[in-house]
Write a structure and sequence with these properties.
Shape: globular
Order of helices and strands: HHHEHHHEHEEEEHEHHHHH
Low-confidence stretches: 357-362
Structural class: alpha/beta
Bound molecules: thiamine diphosphate, magnesium ion
Number of strands: 7
CATH class of the largest domain: Alpha Beta
Radius of gyration: 21 Å
Mean pLDDT: 95
Number of helices: 13
Number of domains: 2
CATH topology of the largest domain: Rossmann fold
Strand order of the largest sheet: 1-2-3-7-6
């Protein structure tokens, strides 16, 4: 069974419906994400932040996801690489730095989550759980609730191809297929799970081949081509919204960095392979497409880059100036007030003082 092609799946050229204004906004978001991502790498190498995991090279399919969903209404369960998706759905650059620096005003967790574990409750971006693929059954659970309530909403998740080897992925997709849920699963197939290549991960060409087994379309597409990605993701999202059931969509994409700031991919990846993958980099491809359409020129691109770098400088400065959480508040929000865990925590002694949860009701 071969995966479907975008031509078989897409019923309408959704990308053609994007106005010039929408395309310029999309392009700005991709450039913003790239520059923000690069800044995080620099801060890590300067020893100023503890960890970074990158979306560089995977932005086209991610941006398509952010644009295809209704921001603030539909639910999104992100992959840890989905920087541009979450920026598109409403996370601000300062929020990324607040989280990375572990500041008290970090809207995702008050500085408690790992960096890149994106979430923003107001925008229905549900927090990344560190065990890979656990977002899939979480997301199908939300999709089930949407269906039971008869809401015109969609629940979408993203994950890497390596994580599709986890049982959670299979269970989630099986459930979505049985109940014909308003659910979209996007696999960002960058052909590596840290150092493990795709062919050591599965005996099929890619995860999309498995859609048939779960009773849903499985569609493989060029996840580095923004227009193709938008057409596929939008089709899957609208199909779910129309009550036609779930879709499994597989973005062929490129991880242009090491797995994370803690990884050295020179130990397992040929440099020539990365150089070849850079030819598929989604950002120059989108730059060229907008230049060809007369929406951008080289001078405008340089101006935009400067504007974005200034925006990032400001966001970084604002986050640096924000307060760190108090040590005494470390356990606030971990347990529901009045629960067994909360009562246990209240009974602990704390060097140098009392826990905030012992002194204050929250
Ligand atoms: C259940 C579980 N096992 C292992 C890990 C460690 N781990 C984190 S990311 C990762 C690789 C995931 O690869 P893939 O799903 O292809 O995503 P990519 O990083 O390539 O985007 C692993 C093994 C984890 N977080 N959770
Ligand atoms: Mg991978």
């Amino acid at each position: 069974m071969n995966a479907s092609s975008p031509q078989d799946f897409v019923t309408h050229d959704h990308a053609a419906d994007l106005s010039a204004e929408a395309l310029l906004r999309a392009h700005r978001l991709m450039l913003l994400a790239r520059k923000l991502d690069e800044r995080c790498w620099i801060l890590h190498r300067q020893g100023k932040i503890a960890f970074h995991i990158s979306g560089i090279g995977q932005e086209a399919c991610q941006l398509a996801a952010g644009l295809a969903l209704q921001a603030g209404s539909d639910y999104y369960f992100p992959h840890y690489r989905d920087l541009v998706t979450v920026l598109t759905l409403g996370v601000r650059p300062v929020d990324i730095f607040l989280s990375t620096y572990g500041k008290a005003t970090d809207p995702s967790s008050g500085g408690r989550q790992m960096p890149n574990h994106y979430n923003l409750a107001s925008q229905r971006i549900v927090t990344v759980s560190s065990p890979t693929a656990t977002q899939v059954p979480q997301c199908t659970g939300v999709a089930f609730a949407i269906k039971l309530r008869g809401e015109p909403l969609v629940a979408m998740c993203a994950l890497g191809e390596g994580a599709t080897s986890q049982g959670d992925w299979h269970e989630g997709l099986n459930w979505a297929g049985i109940h014909k849920l308003p659910f979209v699963c996007m696999v960002e197939n960058n052909h590596y799970a840290i150092s493990v290549p795709l062919e050591k991960q599965m005996a099929v060409a890619g995860p999309a081949e498995r859609g048939y087994a779960y009773g849903m379309p499985g569609v493989a597409f060029d996840g580095n081509d923004f227009f193709e990605s938008y057409n596929v993701v939008k089709e899957a999202v609208e199909r779910a919204r129309r009550g036609e059931g779930p879709s499994l969509i597989e973005a062929h994409t490129t991880r242009l960095t090491a797995h994370s700031s803690d990884d050295d991919d020179r130990t397992y990846r040929d440099r020539a392979e990365i150089e070849a993958q850079k030819q598929r980099d989604p950002l120059p491809r989108l730059n060229r497409a907008l230049i060809e359409r007369g929406l951008l020129d080289e001078a405008a691109l340089r101006r935009l880059e400067q504007e974005i770098l200034a925006e990032i400088d400001q966001a970084q400065a604002d986050a640096l100036a924000a307060p760190y959480p108090q040590a005494e508040e470390a356990l606030v929000g971990v347990f529901e007030a009045g629960s067994v865990g909360d009562r246990a925590v209240r009974s602990w002694s704390w060097p140098g003082g009392r826990l905030a949860s012992q002194s204050k009701e929250r």
